[in-house]
Amino acid sequence: MSRIAGKFEVLRREGRHALIPYIMAGDPEPRLTVPLMHALVKNGADMLELGVPFSDPMADGPVIQRASERALKHKISLTRVLEIVREFREKDKTTPVVLMGYLNPIEVMGYARFAAAAADAGVDGVLTVDMPPEEAQAFLSVLKLRRLDTIFLLAPTSSTERIKRIARAASGFIYYVSLRGVTGAANLDVTEVAGKLKEIRRHTKLPLGVGFGINGPGAAAQVAEIADAVIVGSAVVRRMEEMALNPDKILSEVPAFIARLRAAMDRATMAPTSATGTSR
């Protein structure tokens, strides 16, 4: 069982839902990334989504685009991102780490070399935004050989046939993009999301994570009631950007934000207990 599947199984038994924060590797300063990863886990993150900076992040809104630009100024390459994961694994052997990025850096490295290096560093899953399942067979084969999960995106506009295709190709979990548009967009419609998740669940038993538009504890709690995982990106990165002039504050302020999300999600989803501690 992969680390991702194992984590979802533990959470299911506990009656809890996964909280997956996204940060860009190397943003705002490379020295902060690994300590921040550990602090996020300590404050309630169940998995980590680590962005690989890219010069043309087409699916990302302005907040994450700027994070990518900052990281690239520090020469953060795909190889350096894998070194960051390896350093994280020196102290944390259990928290799943998913790389999120674009295909070009992986193609430059080569599929087989990337898969081997990612597995060796301790990566658990890969979400390649611009890799459609129709063109992914060679990539999927080398990832599967290295026991790396492949995360795919579904959107409000995804057809039934598209859902079926991605359900066949995906492993680990499926990432549902709750909004039309790029990361950082607003106006989350939880009722609409719930309806789409119900449709997706007819075609897969994989856990469903929801991201885009989750900007605070209230939205995180609402999504936790209908999804297996809450993925928070722009709201985290925006806070990091606001502390760019005092980056060491990030190590306390951002984990505190994650702790608030965790508390709100648990209040919304965990069964109340009786005086004897037995779930009702």
Question: How would you portray this structure in words?
Answer:
The chain has 280 residues and is an alpha/beta fold. It has a single domain, classed as Alpha-Beta Barrel (TIM Barrel). Helix content is 48%, strand content 14%. The chain has 12 helices and 8 strands. The protein has an 8-stranded parallel beta barrel, surrounded by 8 helices. α2 (30-42) crosses α4 (78-89), α4 packs parallel to α6 and α6 (111-121) runs parallel beside α7 (137-145). It is globular and about 45 Å long. The two termini are 31 Å apart. Mean pLDDT is 92; it is low at 273-280.
How many strand elements? 8
- Average predicted local confidence, pLDDT: 92
Intertermini distance: 31 Å
Unreliable sequence segments:
273-280
The CATH architecture category equals: Alpha-Beta Barrel
Strand order of the largest sheet: 1-2-3-4-5-6-7-8
Beta-strand percentage? 5-15%
Helix content class? 40-55%
- The multimeric state of the shown protein is single chain
Order of helices and strands: HEHEHHEHHEHEHEHEHEHH
Radius of gyration: 18 Å
Instruction: Tell me the CATH superfamily.
Output: Aldolase class I
What is the CATH C-level name? Alpha Beta
Based on Cα principal axes, name the global outline: globular
What is the third-level CATH name, the topology? Answer: TIM Barrel
Question: Largest sheet, if any?
Answer: 8 strands, parallel, barrel
Structural class: alpha/beta
Count of separate DSSP helical elements = 12
